[in-house]
Amino acid sequence: MAKQNNIIAPSILSADFANLGKEVENVLEAGAEWIHFDVMDNHFVPNLTIGPMVCKSLRDYGIENHLDVHLMVEPVDDLIKMFADAGASSITFHPEASKDPEKSLSLISDLGCKPGLVVNPDISLDVLNPYIEDLYMVLLMSVFPGFGGQAFIPEVLDKISELRKTIDDLNKKIRLEIDGGVKVDNISKISESGADTFVAGSAIFNEENYKDTITKFKSLID
Ligand code: DX5
Ligand code: ZN
């Protein structure tokens, strides 16, 4: 199974929260397919962001696109339930934040969402072994989680290639998402290494014209 179709998933962590609905609309109109929704609890990572009610507000506002919820929280199970109820499409979490990752993954699927695991830059891909066959997506962090606007960690490129080979050998439709420091000047290399789902926060929201950036991204990966 080769790569899935390319997806651009802007992270709203870098959006203007005073105008979040409009920001999400604008970035989708600019060509993004998904919205990456960073949930931080100031416990698992040293920052605090948004909860299930914001996810529900976007759904009530009329956003129908895929909401890619990234849980940087511990524990995870209660928030999995709340985000599934709030309209999440996929839910990814860090396995080290769950007492029973298998149970947490089953909970995501049982609630009708697509399950994924997140691997930090300093964690081995081996952590995926017991679970990978049942995943919808693996999210590789190319920064240490907690903040937008950090620099891409280049050593992660080899990790992307290794995971791409693992997924291809499994011959399973598993998305390979990259998250952290994705920019116009590195997205080609990231794509060549084997990613098919690209999170970008500051690269998109810190620029005036969202469409320019997203169009440039697509020209560099398609
Ligand atoms: C970091 C988050 C990332 C971050 C990406 O903990 O998981 O999604 O918002 O932001 P940039 O693209 O600015 O690195
Ligand atoms: Zn994220």
List the secondary-structure elements in sequence, H or E: EHEHEHEHEEHEHEHH
Q: Number of DSSP strands? A: 8
The span between the termini is 18 Å
* Strand order in space, largest sheet: 1-8-7-6-5-4-3-2
Strand content: 15-25%
Task: Using the CA coordinates, give the radius of gyration.
Answer: 16 Å
Ions, cofactors and other ligands present here are: D-xylitol-5-phosphate, zinc ion
By secondary-structure content and strand pairing, the structural class works out as: alpha/beta
Discrete helix count? 8
Helix content: 25-40%
Averaged pLDDT, please?
A: 98
Q: Largest beta sheet, briefly?
A: 8 strands, parallel
Shape: globular
Flag low-confidence runs.
none
Question: Your description of this structure?
Answer:
The protein is α/β, with parallel strands linked by helices and 222 residues long. Helix content is 35%, strand content 19%. The chain has 8 helices and 8 strands. The chain has an 8-stranded parallel beta sheet. Helix 4 links the parallel strand 4 (90-93) and strand 5 (114-119). Helix 2 (52-61) runs parallel beside helix 3 (77-86) and helix 5 (156-170) packs parallel to helix 6 (187-193). The longest helix is centred in the C-terminal third of the chain and has 15 residues, at 156-170. The two termini are 18 Å apart. Residues 11, 36, 38, 70, 179, 199 line the site of zinc ion.
